[in-house]
Amino acid sequence: MKDYPVKKNQELTVTITDLSHEGMGIAKVDHYLLFIENALPGEVVDIKVLKVGNKFGFAKVMKYQSTSPDRVKNANEDLLRTGIAPLSHLSYEAQLVFKQKQVENNLKKIAGMPEVPVLPTIGMAKPDHYRNKAQIPVRKIDGKLATGFYRKNSHDMIAIEDFYIQDEAIDEAIVKVREILERFGVKAYNETAHEGFLRHIVIRRGHYSHEMMVVLVTRKAKFFKGETIAEVIHEEIPEVVSVIQNINEERTNVIFGEKEVVLYGKSYIEDQLLGKTFRISAPSFYQVNTEQAEILYETAFDFAQLKKTDVVIDAYSGIGTIGLSVADRVDHVYGVESIPEAVADAKINAEINGIENATYLVGKAEKVMTQWAREDLKPDIIFVDPPRKGLDARFIEAAVNVAPDRIVYVSCNPATLARDLKLFAAAGYQAEKVQPVDLFPQTYHVECVVLITRKND
Ligand code: SAH
User: Fold this and answer.
1) 337 is in an annotated binding site
2) Burial 208-237 (b: 16+ CB within 10 A, else e)
3) What H or E segment, with its residue span, contains residue 365?
């Protein structure tokens, strides 16, 4: 067996030297790394080793010998334990610096671009209760329906009612919906046995409109008194304009199944974003922090320097938030998105807002971009807003082939962003500047906008 400098259950004193990208304190013993929850750089802590792995280990704090000036009192340990708010022990100012550094490190280490300026993270004035969406597992605890969140790296539920980062009206609605379901004798899902009925309660609330959608994710299609329950939910929470049953029969961590049934009202909610109205269906993506999403998009539009003659591509377009927001400032918008329901929303959103110069297609961005290139579409600006895995190399190839002046990359993962910027650079497109915008206060998630321009040579 390999010799490690620490053993399981060993107790020792260490100094925290760094914060991992997931917000865990890091201490080095010889060259071996220990990851420690609720520990900040500079703190000296007595720890107990929990786990010794091949490359690194985990430990927990037994006692703080000294604490960081950046530490804030976090009354609720559950927020750290569940990973709902894993940075809530760090002052908000320090969180913003942490995020800027995350981007800088990735640009330096992965992209090899230490020279690209990363601007200070734009934060929120009130960095709590910002989420417009909640996805809450339901389990049985002490014979009753319970809502809360899983302990990190496990599926043990911790009952929670104040989620701290969610819209408070959503927190209240979760409790009310749970009580109504309890009254009707609805059974919670049991994950281990793959039995029971109600898996998740998902709630979305329009930041401006206050329209609420409640999605009940169930293991089986047959929902005894489903419509009556939905009516009662609307009666007791008048903001609810849509109650949907989503059926997920699989043994899976994926929340939504394929099938859905409208139990009450509409199949969507509407909200406003940058003065336009957007319809959002249950399977469609919508940024969870509306206030900051507006700043994110404004930054992206500012970087794009749009002109009335511009042809614009909105890739990974969701319900069309980016493209439709700029349609009246440009010649034409072409959008592509892989989820059909989201594209249906985008088309209706164009209509609702009286936009006639936008074309939205269902498809994989990498395929449709290649097709557009073949059809000789010549965009001036390409907006990309991919999921965490970043862009497909084929997308980058097709995008640079149509030679846009500028590409504006909205990223939710600095590591894949850095990887992609390297590919763009190899194809003659240079990253000019990066603006992180904090869409996820109290968590380690980092969102940023990058301006990428074609080199003139
Ligand atoms: N721009 C939108 C959505 C961004 S989220 C907004 O700001 O709201 C990323 C979107 O990319 C999701 O809607 C997801 O469904 C979509 N997506 C994921 N992989 C894709 C692919 N290969 N091609 C096209 N769209 C994809």
Assistant:
1) yes
2) ebebbbbbbbbbeeebeebeebbebbbeeb
3) helix 365-374
Does the annotation place 429 within a ligand binding site? no
Q: Looking at the domain 133-273, which fold is it?
A: OB fold (Dihydrolipoamide Acetyltransferase, E2P) (2.40.50)
Of 138, 145, 273, 412, the catalytic one is 412
- Confirm or reject: Cβ of 133 under 6 Å from ligand 1: no
Tell whether ligand 1 has an atom less than 6 A from the beta carbon of residue 283. Answer: no
Angstrom distance (rounded) from CA 28 to CA 43: 13
Q: Which of 338, 388, 408, 420 to mutate to test the pocket of ligand 1 (most atoms within 8 A of CB)?
A: 338
Asked about 412 being catalytic, the answer comes back as yes
Q: Ligand 1: which atom is nearest the Cα of residue 293?
A: 7
Given CATH 3.30.365.10, say whether it is the number of domain 11-71. Answer: no
249 labelled binding-site residue: no
Tens-binned pLDDT, residue by residue, of the chain (457 aa): 678 999 999 999 999 999 999 999 999 999 999 999 999 999 999 999 999 999 999 999 999 999 999 999 866 788 888 889 999 999 999 999 999 999 999 999 999 999 999 999 999 999 999 999 999 999 999 999 999 999 888 888 999 999 999 999 999 999 999 999 999 999 999 999 999 999 999 999 999 999 999 999 999 999 999 999 999 999 999 999 999 999 999 999 999 999 999 999 999 999 999 999 999 999 999 999 999 999 999 999 999 999 999 999 999 999 999 999 999 999 999 999 999 999 999 999 999 999 999 999 999 999 999 999 999 999 999 999 999 999 999 999 999 999 999 999 999 999 999 999 999 999 999 999 999 999 999 999 999 999 999 987 6
- What does the buried/exposed string (b/e) look like for 252-288 if buried means 16 or more CB atoms within 10 Å of the residue's CB? eeeebbeebbebbbeebbbbebbebebbbbbbbbbbb
In the chain, domain spans: 11-71, 100-124+289-454, 133-273
Confidence (pTM): 0.96
Ligand 1 binding pocket includes 337 (Cβ within 6 Å): yes
Task: Please identify, by atom number, the ligand 1 atom nearest to the C-alpha of residue 287.
Answer: 8
Q: Cα separation of 310 and 23, whole Å?
A: 42
Q: Which fold has domain 100-124+289-454?
A: Rossmann fold (3.40.50)
The C-alpha atoms of residue 388 and residue 285 are separated, in whole angstroms, by 13
Q: Is 292 annotated as a binding residue?
A: no
Whether the domain at 100-124+289-454 and the domain at 133-273 fall into the same CATH topology: no
